[in-house]
TrEMBL record:
GO terms for biological process: mRNA splicing, via spliceosome. This is Pre-mRNA-splicing factor 38. It comes from Oppiella nova. Belongs to the PRP38 family. Its main location: nucleus. Residues 277-288 have a biased composition (Basic and acidic residues). Pfam families: PRP38. It is found in: Nucleus. Residues 210-242 have a biased composition (Basic residues). The lineage of its organism: Eukaryota, Metazoa, Ecdysozoa, Arthropoda, Chelicerata. Required for pre-mRNA splicing.
Length: 306
């Protein structure tokens, strides 16, 4: 009874939702310790806590084909079929990255192609790191956008065959989806504009240099006469700059002579603050409970007690 799909479950892609996972892997999951101890009698409310506890993603590993907790929770979601709003909230929340990966994988299995593109493509902008367990039991690191690209492009992920989806172009032709907007488009446009401005500035500089060369070659006498006022103005400017620099130095010296008392008072205040912060112990569990309660409040669940 514990391994059967709920009575009110709907067929997904014409079959029982649990049949989306192959029989061999499904039986290994049923025999695993995590499924028997942690996934027994899980509901849509309790699976939120299990998703928060995830620390890595993966499929099966070891020679005996042991399933990861991530794959066990995916099968449990297929078994209980939570509401679509709960799965979307898994994907949209930003506090727990492994719960987001869990919701994305489940939506890729049961969702329509339009929903898959609609809710998974925004995750291309998430560049956080994820720990992944390989078949040999070792860990490597991938990013969230790489994981989403695997779900949208590959046929098999974590030893589970993904259902086929239509190409994005067909949805665009049917006016079901708009054209894809990437965050990189703004950066590319800004780079193009900057390149155009640089090319325009270079062309203006070339024209100015040519005009100067022509004016020098045509009238050498005028050139000699026109230099004298410029040279005088340059000398006056250099003198004024030297005076300003001397004044700035005097001001800096005065400030430095007055500042030791202020610096001492500031240092004393900083030392007091650092002592207070060091005395107050930080509880990391309280922060995790607060984040979990915020997510449970969005889903309409009861908060956890510290």
């Amino acid at each position: 009874m514990a391994n059967r799909t709920i009575k009110d479950a709907k067929t997904v892609h014409g079959t029982n939702p649990q049949y989306l996972v192959e029989k061999i892997i499904r039986t290994r999951i049923y025999e695993s310790r995590y499924w028997k101890e942690d996934c027994f009698a899980l509901t849509a409310e309790l699976i939120v806590d299990k998703g928060i506890e995830l620390r890595y993603i993966g499929g099966i590993y070891s020679g005996n084909i042991k399933p990861t907790p991530f794959l066990c929770l995916v099968l449990k979601l297929l078994q209980i079929q939570p509401d679509k709003d709960i799965v979307i909230e898994f994907i949209r929340q930003e506090d727990f990255k492994y719960m987001r990966a869990l919701g994305a994988f489940y939506l890729r299995l049961i969702g329509s192609s339009s929903d898959v593109y609609k809710y998974l493509e925004p995750l291309y902008n998430d560049f956080r790191k994820l720990r992944r367990m390989s078949k040999m039991g070792t860990f490597d690191v991938i990013h969230m956008d790489e994981f989403i690209d695997m779900l949208l492009r590959e046929d098999r992920v974590f030893d589970v065959i993904l259902p086929r989806i239509l190409k994005r172009k067909t949805h665009e032709d049917n006016a079901e989806l708009g054209p894809r907007v990437s965050v990189l488009d703004d950066d590319l446009e800004a780079d193009m504009d900057s390149d155009e401005e640089q090319s325009n500035d270079e062309s203006h500089e070339v024209l100015r240099s040519e005009r100067r060369h022509r004016s020098k070659s045509r009238s050498p006498v005028r050139r000699h006469r026109s230099r004298s006022p410029h040279s005088r103005s340059r000398r006056s400017r250099s003198r004024s700059r030297e005076r300003r620099s001397d004044r700035d130095r005097d001001r800096r010296d005065r400030k430095r002579s007055k500042s030791p008392k202020r610096e001492k008072s500031k240092r004393e205040k900083k030392d007091k603050k650092s002592k207070k912060e060091s005395k107050e112990p930080k509880d990391p569990k309280a922060d995790e409970i607060a984040e979990a309660n915020a997510l449970r409040a969005k889903l309409g669940l009861k908060p956890l007690k510290p």
